[in-house]
Amino acid sequence: ASNFAFGRPVVEVFNQLGLAAAALGNHEFDWGQDTLRARMQQAHYAILGANVRDTLGRAVPWIRRDTLIVRGGIKIGIIGVSTKSTPTSTRPSNVVGLRFDDPAPIVDSLTRSLRASGADVVVLVAHAGAFCDRTGRSSCAGEIVDLAQRVTQHVDAIVSGHTHSLVNTIVNGIPIVQGRSQGQAIDVVDLPLDAAEGTMPSHEVRDVLPDSIAPDSAVNAIVAQATAAAAPRANRPVARIAEHMRKSPAGAEDQVALGSLIADAMRIEGKGDIGIMNNGGIRADLRAGAATYGDLFEVQPFGNILYRVTLGGRDLRAYFENLVGRRRPIVHISGAVVEYDTTRAPGSRLVSVRIGDAPLDDNRSYTLVVNDFEYAGGSGLGFGSAVRRAENLDLVDLDAFIAYLQQQPQPVMAPNDKRFVIARRQ
Q1: Is there a contact between 236 and 242 (Cβ–Cβ < 8 Å)?
Q2: Nearest to 372 by CA among 320, 308, 293
Q3: Residue 87 scores a pLDDT above 60
Q4: Beta strands 185-190 and 202-207: pairing type?
Q5: Which of 178, 198, 364, 369 is the right S-S partner for 272, CB 3.0 to 4.6 Å?
Q6: Which helix (H) or strand (E) is 340 found in, with range?
Q7: Those residues with Cβ within 8 angstroms of residue 354's Cβ, 6 or more apart along the chain or in another chain
Q8: pLDDT (tens digit, 9 = 90+) per residue, 36-70?
Q9: How distant, in Å, are the alpha carbons of 78, 194, 204 from that of 123?
């Protein structure tokens, strides 16, 4: 309902909630900079990106760096920063003319400026996150932890995001909280306003139970209107699904049926030897039963265009080697089975690769069907100079998925074969 209206309903909801400020994230760029500027003008709150600069390192006139608000007589300075990985976590065309600089010295400079302007408290909101243990308190690592360790000016609290994870810790004396994602939790930070009291800030992340918060009537009205506007398109039936398919792996798994199903659709509809789907592009579970256009749109909402890329066998082998050198593969594949050994050093982990019914041949060419995010190098999934030929198929990933599902026997069964296989030690 929001995507069909290019984000307008979400900004309306945040306006109604009385949001004070937000950090500029990679998905704010999903519809390009013109649409982002329109959403910023619509917002009654500040959308901040202090480390977003033009290609010459200058401030971008239409992107605010910070804001100073007053609540109950208390002056609160808020700085917003974006993840440095934004150029590789959105289409490169969405951020043309922009760069995303190291935020630490920028945060230090703005903190000094806000304190000089009378800020009693300085809070950093960051679309940059971390991963911790299951409590969110220890073993924390990630971009926001690195930033907190490097700032030299006193920041009272950090509200982070981007990694959709639980963060509830203190780094360099700064509380960092991140309330998972999708309204699953609420961050609560209590900051002492009188430093002389010597009181340390308290912080926690409270999980939210379903239906535990009474609906707001004004927000309900916004949601109802947006949903009704999208309904004629969203409610169109497409296929029947045999069983629930998760969007992401759980536990020790590295693959899910939904990722394999989408990769199959890419390979078949794109007429390639191999289909490759990045895990980050799968945004929702696919539920069992009747699947509507809206259900499938939630799974693949970005409107990526498919490309058919030709690589030599030797370069394809190197590409697979790069994929299995990570903690776990961040893609799903179709048309190939890759066996690898996690005990070997990165660069030598491949045990065997089969394309179709035959071993990968270093001396022949193969066609890979990928989306334009991958083709452009998003998440480090590009091919660089190894590309022998690249064809824009003028086919939206969602349309390919729908066409594939409609061609399958109904209800559509979940693929259960493994395409990335960890070799068993002898």
Answers
A1: no
A2: 308
A3: yes
A4: antiparallel
A5: 369
A6: strand 336-340
A7: 336, 337, 360
A8: 999 999 999 999 999 999 999 999 999 999 999 99
A9: 5, 16, 16
Contacts of 128 (CB under 8 A, 6+ apart): 81, 82, 83, 84, 103, 142, 143, 144, 147, 160, 161, 162
Task: Pull the structure tokens for residue 184.
Answer: 């699953």
How far, in Å, CA of 178 to CA of 188, rounded? 10
Would you state the pLDDT for residue 346? 86
**Class of residue 109 by CB neighbours under 10 A (exposed 0-12, middle 13-18, buried 19+):** middle
Specify the residue for token string 């109950």: 72
Q: Tell me which amino acid residue 412 is.
A: V
Strand ranges of the sheet holding 420-422, from the earlier edge strand across to the other edge: 358-359, 350-355, 336-340, 420-422
d(CA 358, CA 176): 51
Q: CA-CA distance, 160 to 144, in Å (whole number)?
A: 7
Say if residue 124's pLDDT is above 60.
Answer: yes
Angle, vertex CA 95, rays to CA 91 and CA 96, nearest 5: 110
How confident is the model at residue 80, as a pLDDT?
Answer: 98
In three-state form (DSSP H/G/I as H, E/B as E, the rest C), the secondary structure along 23-67 is: ECCHHHHCCCHHHHHHHHHHCCCEEECCCEEECCCCECCCCECEE
Q: CA–CA separation, 361 vs 207, rounded Å?
A: 51
CA distances from 40 to 10, 27, 29, 33, 298 (A): 12, 14, 12, 10, 24
**Section 217-244 average pLDDT:** 97
Total-model pTM: 0.86
Mean pLDDT score of the chain: 94
CA dihedral 267, 85, 15, 11 (to 10 degrees): -20
Q: Is pLDDT larger for residue 150 or for residue 211? A: 150
Cα-based torsion angle of the residue sequence 293, 294, 300, 301 in order, rounded to the nearest 10 degrees: 120
